Amino acid sequence: MNTTEIREVFEAQLELSAGLPALVWPNTNAPAGLKTKVELTFVGSRRRMAGLNLREHTGSLTAIVCFPLGQGEDPAVAVAEALADAFPAGFRGAVGGTQLEVTETPTVQDGYPTDTNWRVPVTIHYRATPRP
Amino acid sequence: MTKSFTAQLDAWALETNARLDAVTKQATNDLIAGIEVAPGMVRSGSYAPRGTIPRMDGALAASLQSSLYGSTGVNSQGEDGYTLVVASMQAGDTALFSWGGAVAPYAMRAHYGDEKIPGTFWIDEAAANWQGYVSAAVQRAKAQVGE
């Protein structure tokens, strides 16, 4: 079980969701000028170790849906809700030695403007454990 | 921006309402008090660390609105206003703490980030520690009664 496999569980499920904009994972570069995208960030991660082995990992994945300003709220909210629906409470996925469970229904926050984007955050809480 | 919590309590804490109330007050107080305020950006160009409220112009931390719904209704505004709500809390009450509003309309940008400055996610980081605050509050309550 490791953090790479945790990300891969999310990636695999996100790839099944049709119509999502480009995904931008932490510490990767989005193409210059890309204004429609989903920025992904792991937040509040707590790791429980047994020796050198990761035994449990809890936290949340925050997905921020970004659309250009001036298109109204609906396009970003529609993507945010589709993204939240892809991870219902109780959702389980596994990659390699990692199994992951979504621990509560994802929350879609109110949108907010920045200099160039309208952004809608989605928070997905999870717990990952070693695959039996 | 809201987040709800539930917690696992041990049998000792569940034994009396007084213990439950004490643990609820202590854990909630420690959660909010534990959110630090940090300079939004320092001369080196680095940003406020994760889990902190960035102090850009002072208004964000002071925009904290604390409300209690349940056994008593209490509303309080200000960086330290949560103490009034905590003092009135009983187990089972719902307390709401929020930042932003007209005082600091940029709260969402500070929390989740924008094109230039990364978010500090102070609410989500604090929420991730909730069970730890509850466990610590139970241990402190046990120590105070000499058990």
What gap, in angstroms, lies between the N and C termini of chain B? 39 Å
- Oligomeric state: heterodimer
Number of helices of chain A: 2
**Overall strand count of chain B:** 5
Order of helices and strands of chain A: HEEEHEEEEE
Report the principal-axis shape of chain A.
elongated
- Beta-strand content of chain A: over 45%
| Widest β-sheet, arrangement of strands of chain B | 4-3-5
Structural class of chain A: alpha+beta
Strand count, sense and closure of the main sheet of chain B? 3 strands, antiparallel
Distance linking N and C termini of chain A: 10 Å
Quickly give the structural class of chain B. alpha+beta
Overall mean pLDDT of chain A: 92
Spans where pLDDT lies below 50 across 5 or more residues of chain A: none
Assign a percent range to the helix content of chain A: 10-25%
Unreliable parts of chain B: none
Helix count of chain B equals: 7
Number of strands of chain A: 8
The radius of gyration computed from the alpha-carbon positions of chain A, rounded to a whole number of angstroms, is 15 Å
Instruction: Assign a percent range to the helix content of chain B.
Output: 40-55%
- Biggest sheet descriptor of chain A: 8 strands, mixed
